[in-house]
């Protein structure tokens, strides 16, 4: 998986340095062979005017080189720039030798030939070598074996470097195609895919990883994989090399993680790892919702079956108590009858609440705006809390309508505000907020009260669970049933001593 070829930016740097060293070598040769005295300032300044020409040449050569290797340039223009690059480099080298006629510096021809063969391939490399070879033979006053050997060596060198460059280029191109194919392939998966090397550094990741962790890929690739899982419920250092379907929590989200070890054929000690990430937050919520619905269904069946059988004896007992109270008007006995009646009323209210869980108040669903519902009941539902010194805050954003039953949603709001009020004391704050995204409309009720104990968090939406001695434990169960019937869900966050947040989500109409 590791790319053994340097990126194009490093290739550019190498060539720029090579061009600079080539031109600098020529400049130094000219300087030394003109025997310029360093103390002769005027001579040095006049001679250094050639530096301007060399610098312009350096800029032109690099410009042509960039165009010659640019993948975004169409092939015909790219070939043109390669020819111009080769021609300009050859003419510059030839002009130097024609002007100064220093035969002993023929060896410097190697540099432009190698640069051309590497950049432009075998054909232009050999062609440039032939031009320079002809120049070597032409300049020789007497044709000798050294000039012929130099010419042949330059041509062979150009062919050899060009062939090696072509092989490396094809290899690099094939590797780039395979990497692109792999990158395109993993982008088709709905799961998050992370490929990391033996040092646990991420070398490839798909767009799903960006969405899951909300971090750009540019900040992921090349970094340690452990950084992504810093807040995981199962620490990254405890992960085994291979595992399937490990559930992990990060903040409010749930993930199903599988990890595979890929053996490296060329370097067995260096393995790669593929991590597959499924965001199962919604699935987890659905599972919890189904469990709650099963519980509510059981309670509903119990309530529906028992309500009639319980209420009939209650009516009979209340009648006998009233009769006994009339026949024995003793004050203490009458007080006991009143207490018994109150307890019977309490039993009756519990049965009524159970029926509400089983069958919430019916009505026809219609388009509703949560903001309007809050406006309608705000003063009424916050009156008792304001009298206790609780501060209420309302933050209602513009939201789309939902499909719902007005009375049921008001009952949910009443239960949440009453629970928040019971958890708060004077000076605490209760805030309500509405907002929306492309799927849901949200209603958040937040308080700064005493909070909920961690061991109670999984039970608060279950029927009959309550920490209030006077409560029935059915209020939040009713809220959950109503929200579920409205194709929504409830999330609860709480910190003991700091407060609680109930977040309700309803599907947009």
TrEMBL record:
<keyword id="KW-0597">Phosphoprotein</keyword>
<keyword id="KW-0067">ATP-binding</keyword>
<feature type="domain" description="Histidine kinase">
    <location>
        <begin position="305"/>
        <end position="509"/>
    </location>
</feature>
<protein>
    <recommendedName>
        <fullName>histidine kinase</fullName>
        <ecNumber>2.7.13.3</ecNumber>
    </recommendedName>
</protein>
<dbReference type="InterPro" id="IPR003661">
    <property type="entry name" value="HisK_dim/P_dom"/>
</dbReference>
<keyword id="KW-0472">Membrane</keyword>
<dbReference type="Pfam" id="PF02518">
    <property type="entry name" value="HATPase_c"/>
</dbReference>
<feature type="transmembrane region" description="Helical">
    <location>
        <begin position="106"/>
        <end position="136"/>
    </location>
</feature>
<dbReference type="InterPro" id="IPR003594">
    <property type="entry name" value="HATPase_dom"/>
</dbReference>
<dbReference type="InterPro" id="IPR036890">
    <property type="entry name" value="HATPase_C_sf"/>
</dbReference>
<dbReference type="GO" id="GO:0005524">
    <property type="term" value="F:ATP binding"/>
</dbReference>
<feature type="transmembrane region" description="Helical">
    <location>
        <begin position="14"/>
        <end position="32"/>
    </location>
</feature>
<keyword id="KW-0808">Transferase</keyword>
<dbReference type="InterPro" id="IPR035965">
    <property type="entry name" value="PAS-like_dom_sf"/>
</dbReference>
<feature type="transmembrane region" description="Helical">
    <location>
        <begin position="148"/>
        <end position="169"/>
    </location>
</feature>
<dbReference type="InterPro" id="IPR036097">
    <property type="entry name" value="HisK_dim/P_sf"/>
</dbReference>
<keyword id="KW-1133">Transmembrane helix</keyword>
<feature type="domain" description="PAS">
    <location>
        <begin position="178"/>
        <end position="223"/>
    </location>
</feature>
<feature type="transmembrane region" description="Helical">
    <location>
        <begin position="44"/>
        <end position="66"/>
    </location>
</feature>
<dbReference type="InterPro" id="IPR000014">
    <property type="entry name" value="PAS"/>
</dbReference>
<dbReference type="InterPro" id="IPR004358">
    <property type="entry name" value="Sig_transdc_His_kin-like_C"/>
</dbReference>
<keyword id="KW-0418">Kinase</keyword>
<dbReference type="Pfam" id="PF00512">
    <property type="entry name" value="HisKA"/>
</dbReference>
<keyword id="KW-0902">Two-component regulatory system</keyword>
<dbReference type="GO" id="GO:0000155">
    <property type="term" value="F:phosphorelay sensor kinase activity"/>
</dbReference>
<keyword id="KW-0812">Transmembrane</keyword>
<feature type="transmembrane region" description="Helical">
    <location>
        <begin position="78"/>
        <end position="100"/>
    </location>
</feature>
<dbReference type="InterPro" id="IPR005467">
    <property type="entry name" value="His_kinase_dom"/>
</dbReference>
<keyword id="KW-0547">Nucleotide-binding</keyword>
């Amino acid at each position: 998986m590791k790319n053994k070829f340097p990126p194009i930016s490093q290739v550019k740097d190498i060539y720029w340095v090579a061009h600079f060293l080539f031109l600098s070598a020529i400049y130094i040769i000219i300087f030394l062979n003109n025997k310029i005295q360093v103390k002769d300032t005027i001579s040095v300044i006049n001679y250094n005017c050639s530096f301007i020409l060399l610098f312009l040449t350096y800029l032109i050569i690099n410009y042509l080189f960039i165009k010659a290797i640019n993948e975004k340039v169409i092939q015909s223009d790219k070939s043109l720039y390669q020819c111009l690059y080769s021609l300009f480099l050859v003419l510059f080298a030839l002009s130097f030798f024609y002007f100064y006629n220093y035969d002993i510096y023929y060896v410097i021809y190697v540099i432009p030939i190698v640069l051309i063969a590497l950049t432009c391939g075998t054909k232009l490399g050999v062609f440039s070598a032939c031009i320079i070879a002809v120049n070597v033979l032409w300049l020789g006053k007497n044709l000798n074996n050294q000039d012929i050997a130099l010419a042949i060596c330059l041509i062979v060198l150009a062919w050899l470097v060009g062939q090696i460059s072509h092989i490396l280029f094809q290899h690099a191109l094939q590797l780039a195609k395979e990497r692109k194919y792999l990158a395109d392939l993993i982008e088709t998966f709905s799961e998050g895919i992370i490929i990391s090397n033996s040092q646990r550094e991420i070398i490839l990741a798909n767009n799903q990883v960006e969405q899951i962790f909300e971090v750009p890929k540019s900040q992921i690739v090349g970094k340690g994989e452990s950084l992504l899982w810093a807040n995981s419920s199962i620490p990254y250092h405890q992960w085994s090399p291979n595992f399937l379907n490990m559930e992990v929590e990060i903040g409010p989200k749930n993930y199903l993680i599988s990890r595979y070890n890929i053996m490296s054929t060329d370097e067995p000690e260096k393995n790669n790892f593929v991590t597959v990430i499924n965001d199962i937050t919604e699935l987890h919520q659905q599972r919890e919702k189904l469990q709650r619905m099963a519980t509510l269904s059981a309670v509903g069946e119990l309530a529906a079956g028992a309500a009639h059988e319980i209420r009939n004896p209650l009516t009979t007992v209340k009648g006998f108590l009233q009769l006994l109270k009339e026949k024995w008007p003793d004050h203490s006995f009458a007080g006991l009858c009143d207490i018994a009646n109150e307890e019977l009323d309490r039993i009756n209210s519990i049965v009524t609440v159970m029926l509400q869980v089983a069958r919430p108040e019916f009505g026809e669903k219609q388009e509703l705006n949560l903001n309007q519902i809050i406006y309608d009941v705000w003063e009424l539902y916050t009156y008792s809390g304001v009298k206790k010194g609780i501060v209420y805050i309302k933050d209602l954003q513009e939201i789309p309508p939902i499909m719902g039953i007005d009375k049921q949603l008001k009952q949910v709001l009443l239960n949440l505000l009453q629970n928040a009020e019971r958890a708060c004391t004077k000076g605490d704050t209760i805030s309500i907020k509405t907002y929306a995204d492309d799927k849901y409309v949200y209603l958040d009720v937040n308080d700064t009260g005493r909070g909920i104990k961690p061991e109670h968090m999984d039970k608060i939406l279950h029927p009959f669970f309550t920490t209030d001695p006077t409560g029935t434990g059915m209020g939040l169960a009713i809220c959950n049933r109503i929200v579920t019937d409205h194709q929504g869900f409830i999330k609860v966050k709480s910190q003991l001593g700091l407060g609680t947040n109930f977040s309700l989500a309803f599907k947009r109409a």
